[in-house]
Amino acid sequence: MHITYETAAAPGRPRNEDYVIGGPTWVAVLDGATAPAGVDSGCCHDVPWLVAQLGSALARRIATRPEESLSDIVAGAIRTTMAAHAGTCDLANPDSPSSTVAVLRERGGLVDYLVLCDSPIVLQRTDGTLTLVDDDRTDHLPGGRPYSLELVRASRNRPGGFWVASTAPEAAYEALTGSVGLDTVSGALLATDGVTRLVEWYDHTWEQMVATAAAAGPGELIGLVRKEERERGTPGFAKRHDDATAVWLSW
Description:
By secondary structure, the chain is an alpha+beta fold. The protein contains 6 helices and 10 strands, in the order βββααββββαββαααβ. It has helices at about 45-65, 70-85, 150-155, 195-200, 205-215, 220-230; strands at about 1-10, 20-25, 25-35, 100-105, 110-115, 120-125, 130-135, 175-180, 185-190, 245-250. It is globular and about 50 Å long.
């Protein structure tokens, strides 16, 4: 497995709330969610702390429990992260910090994947087709965007809503998971929604995204999204720029 990645904070933002971590046979991408201005999250830590803690816990568990399913690994990482700040923070607060999780792991003759919330994985198959693993439940909440804070709070980690890594380890078992034969995959793209807006808003295709990452590297995707943001703007419900991360794997 050969892994390349690029991650960049949104222009004007001092810290990047995306996070990438990996090893010889796996990689994970996390996209932390910032609470809206004026909302008390009940947590004394910032989002970069959360994604770093969660990513580190994932890494330790993958390294020491290779027999576990990715859902078990993510659930364990959420529990470990909760324990790291249970004594200082209100983990019952419905606005506790949260993060998406996308994990891809090579295991023997298989490639395992997990996608929790809106950081998708695209598998490039050896026959030239693509397999998109996209947890788009945040796009289907009642009423359409822009969503109210009350709706998001009531829908987070609830049946019929959406699931994300925060203070509910059971969310890991609601992720999209699966395995494919290693001999059927030639590459994979993992991205946060700061990059996938190329497809969602700017008329790019997944085929173009994969081809660009394979030929020019994942950093080219970030350059493209910044160009589109400057030239075409964003929908009224969205922030002008977001942290952006793309990972390209090849075998």
